[in-house]
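Sequence decides. Consider this:

===
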Amino acid sequence: MINSKETVPHVIFDNGINLEEFSSRFQNIVQEKPFPIKIDDIFLDKKKKRALIPVTSDNDNKEFMIEIISMHNRSTLSIFSSDNLKKSDFAKSAMGLITKSILRTFSNIRIFSTDIENYIPKRIIDKNDS
């Protein structure tokens, strides 16, 4: 039975993300603490409305994908993989890093809704609210 009160970690943005531009401006992301995270690639679909971003940890061979779906008036960032990493602090930290990258790349995009606010640097959220 599916528990409707449990959600998959997500970030919903208030605008469409130009994924082609995000891809061209994307820079490698490496974090050592609290979790070693490496994000160094992004893959777009043919319509450039969906992106997959592989996330790895060299220390314990964790791997999964983060997905961005961009529509005209909303974009969603979520975990693509269906494994047990979905609700881990490791996965949420990686999502926070990508959220930070998106907000730095596009000044016209704000967070509409999220359940990972504790994993997004506070100064990014505060700047986003102004």
